[in-house]
Automatic annotation (TrEMBL):
Gene Ontology annotations for the cellular component aspect, listed alphabetically: membrane
Keyword Mitochondrion attached: no
Main location: membrane
Domain of life the protein comes from: Eukaryota
Signal found in the keyword field: yes
PANTHER family: CONTACTIN-ASSOCIATED PROTEIN-LIKE 3-RELATED (PTHR15036:SF36), PIKACHURIN-LIKE PROTEIN (PTHR15036)
Annotated EGF-like domain residues: 546-583
UniProt name for this protein: Contactin-associated protein-like 3
Domain F5/8 type C per the UniProt entry, residue ranges: 31-177
Amino acid sequence: MDPVAGTFLRMLFLLSAQPWSTLAAGNTYNCDAPLASSLPRASFTSSSELSSSHGPGFASLNRRDGAGGWSPLVSNKYQWLQIDLGERSEVTAVATQGGYGSSDWVTSYLLMFSDGGRNWKQYRREESIRGFPGNTNADSVVHYRLQPTFEARFLRFLPLTWNPKGRIGMRIEVYGCAYRSEMVHFDGKSSLLYTFKNKSMNPIKEVISLKFKTKENNGILLHREGPNDKHITLELVKGKLILFLNSGRANLPSPDALMLGSLLDDEHWHSVLIELLNTDVNFTVDMHTHHFRAKGESNYVDLDYKISFGGIPGHGKSVASPHKNFHGCFENLYYNGVDIIDLSKKHKSQVLIMGNVSFSCSHTQTVPMTFLSSRSYLVLPGTSGEDKVSVVFQFRTWDRAGLLLTSQFQQRSGALVLVLRDGKLKLSLSQPGHPARDITAGAGLNDGQWHSVSLSARGNHLSMMVDGEAASMAHSLRGQIESGDTYYLGGCPDNNSSHPGCANSLGGFQGCLRLISIDDEAVDPISVQQGALGSFRDLQIDTCGLTDRCLPSYCEHGGECSQSWNTFFCDCAHTGYTGATCHSSLYEQSCEAHWHRGNSSGLYYIDSDGSGPLEPSLVYCNMTDTAWTSVQHNGSHLVKVKSLNGESPHPVFFKYIASMDQLQTIIDYADNCQQELTFHCKKSRFSTPQDGTPVSWWVGRTNETHTYWGGSQPDAQKCTCGLEGNCIDSQYYCNCDADRNEW
């Protein structure tokens, strides 16, 4: 049969697939009222004030009394202006001014927020880690609408830069409205079991929405089961949310797993939305959405009439991950519009409360600190002259290496140096006249998770514990030790290069520390912040500023993302692409490109869309006077076609090694496209119907049905011989339609 120009066969019969799309609708409301101007002066606090007339109480927008705004005692990057809104509010915009009639204004700043006045979180504009542009003079107002909005009671403005001919000066306003919510607290051993009133409530579509916050990096948020071990489980695993979808089909033993979010154990609120419609799933965490369509006929709505929040009741059936209940708070928990927390508070029969839950959410008192650069350090006093050394803390980082701690014993009798190297902790002990001794513990500690460290030296024993695993060196100390009076965490001051460990070639630690204890005394970071304890440089106290630069990942074509404190990296191995983000293809875009390079005929990978989303495909390049691209399929051998009962059609499918999108792109770039189909017949009509119904047809690239062949016009029902007028029986347009008893 002659070529069919400009198209290709998918199959011989029509199959249709109806895509599903979700339309989200939201209510608009007015939430732009000024919140700060009506507050009492006591609601404004600051790191310091230049004078009583420069106090934070004068920092309201357009205020002219006092000195006409807030200015700190010293203009440096450690100053802040804080507002207590009095209640948790939705914040939709902020505005800033400089000091009234002065040369004092802020040109850029960070905006932080918190529920309880501790453990602050930076507001990031459109995924940017940079701050807000500020003012260019003292009195004009710079207004920013926040997208997205956020909810908080406390806000902090942290000046980054200011007028170089003046000092820091600020007046501010915050806009928004009161925020009301229902909350429930799970203690890690409790859960809520919601039961539908009756089976008729089982919907075609399900929508589950909630907010959560926790300091634990593992725990089950919700679970729902069905027959044959079918289930849906939402679980926090190492600070990431994973939605496990088990279809209950025996041929698919492992569940599908959709993963979103990162560092979600930061004790700040995170939003979750799950939409289920038959085989389609939309999974959204903090405005990032994963769209998923299940294979086959899996239906995740056809489940039992019970759904558990906070854990799995009794841990009766296995799921794909550990059965640890959630420990933390939920807010505004809804299932198909039903307020689950409200039902629980009213002790309605639809909700069974298991264990101890409370309908409020306490605020954390843990105060982390961020080491912003390799030059950051924290100097803390020790208990000089003690016969032991003891240091405990927790850290999290993306960096594989960095100096974490160094301390010198009394009378220079030795020193301890703790470094992170290749994702492992290495504790080195040096004493005069003796070779240095090392302990190495842990692995992969640069994964962004919190890791606990405890090290001690006493008598002749040195030990270190990392995440509960101990490593020690017995009889490692020579002589009696006496603890020194200073501990350096992170890096070292510039004038201490002679101190053991400070001359280390590694830069200082970059990441977050918390729960620091020196010589059995807990360190209060707020005292450090206020200058009452120790000293520091390049620290951000009362926040962990760790950022996941791999969320979202900018690595294309399946490249694996990894990161450090400052940047991210893409591993492009086995992707077929190269470059910083795996963007540039390693393959030519067409057979013609190979032809121009002088390559001979053969099998080649081509990347038909260049750096687009399609993967490279394997084709045969036939090099003649031009380049022909041949895409292989499974129909190159003879297949016997016979109807089962003379009435049922016999479908033949052509499966290409390239995807439909790859085929489409190859065709779009081609000057000419053809496909040959040869049909051997004996007593078998091919085209001409007897009763007006076609006896053969083919399905094209967009699921359209055609009954013409050999390059004929649509609906002509002709083969090549019919077009050329040389069929063996002139009354037919295809040779097979002569219905002869011969091949």
